[in-house]
Write a structure and sequence with these properties.
The chain is 70% helix and 7% strand. It has 310 residues and is mainly α. The protein folds into two domains: 208 residues, no CATH class; 36 residues, no CATH class. The strands form three sheets. It has a three-stranded antiparallel β-sheet, with no helix packed on it. β1 and β2 form a beta hairpin.
């Protein structure tokens, strides 16, 4: 009960830690959406900074989106790298993958006890997962205002652009306000397509760089598994239950039954059992042979035709 209460308290703290950044982001977005003047002011401020840096923004929309989107992705990736430990993230992903594999094997084998144990492990890992999600959302507290300002400026630029379409490799003339999956305008999808690959490449190289300089990698120490004691308790309970079942079976067996089992075991381990020879002059009833011997069961056997009789 104490362990369960401790796990519930940890989950509550992790949930509270994850909800705080979400509530702050939600409050910021609602404020910007409900106050049009604030959004317009952010767009004007962003335009005053971006337009001198990108003098070609009025002629070529796709290069402008590529430069802005790539810059946002680079800055966001660098800021996020300070809040996340890549080795901890990789370790958590590996643990979660192993638990999923064990659960699938247990479900295929219809081992309900093992499935319940894997679910308990997932519940124990829930605080770590929530803490990691909270860490991924913390950088957005610093970048959300700038991203909204840049997107507001881009939305105003789309309305005032010299043409109403964008040229991309998969479609030469794509209307900027055409909807993708009934949600995103075409210019937003263009922004994602232009900026996401570079952000992914930078994120992967930053992780590799931090892997090389991580203290655990340099020390060569193994990463401890904090939930390994749950599996060890499972093995101990299994061995204890097996000993209990053996003791119960021994208690049900009476002294005569145990003596009979011991005598049978001694008979099996003693090898050949000697039997009395047949009476002198005994003949086989089939072939009249005198090569007769007695078997271990007390029957007579002919050595010529292998006939057995009493």
């Amino acid at each position: 009960m104490a362990a369960a209460a401790g796990g519930g308290g940890a989950q509550g703290q992790a949930t509270a830690g994850m909800m705080t950044p979400m509530l702050i982001l939600l409050a910021m977005m609602l404020t910007i959406m409900l106050v049009p003047g604030l959004r317009t002011g952010l767009a004007v401020v962003a335009g005053s900074i971006i337009e001198p840096l990108l003098p070609f923004h009025e002629k070529w929309f796709v290069p402008t989106v590529f430069v802005i989107g790539s810059s946002i992705m680079v800055v966001n990736t660098i800021i996020r790298s300070f809040f996340l430990d890549p080795l901890t993230q990789a370790h958590f992903a590996h643990r979660n993958k192993q638990i999923q594999r064990q659960m699938q094997e247990a479900q295929a084998a219809r081992d309900t006890a093992r499935v319940e144990k894997m679910r308990q492990l997932q519940m124990e890992m829930m605080p770590d997962q929530m803490a990691m999600q909270s860490a991924t959302m913390k950088p957005m507290l610093f970048t959300m205002v700038f991203i909204i300002a840049i997107f507001s400026w881009m939305a105003n630029s789309v309305l005032e652009f010299r043409v109403d379409y964008v040229s991309v490799p998969w479609q030469p003339m794509w209307e900027m306000e055409a909807r993708v999956m009934w949600i995103f305008p075409a210019w937003v999808f263009t922004y994602i397509a232009m900026s996401a690959p570079l952000g992914r490449i930078i994120d992967r190289h930053l992780k590799l760089l931090r892997y090389r300089k991580h203290p655990l990698i340099l020390a060569g120490d193994p990463i401890p598994e904090p939930l390994l004691h749950l599996l060890q308790e499972e093995r101990a309970s299994k061995s204890g239950s097996q000993r209990t079942r053996k003791g119960q079976r021994r208690g049900r067996d009476g002294p005569r039954k145990r003596a009979g089992k011991a005598q049978a075991a001694r008979a099996r381990s003693s090898g050949n059992v000697h039997a009395a020879p047949p009476k002198q002059g005994t003949e086989c009833p089939d072939c009249s042979s005198r090569m007769v011997s007695r078997t271990n069961t007390g029957r007579l056997r002919c050595g010529v035709c292998l006939n057995e009789w009493r």
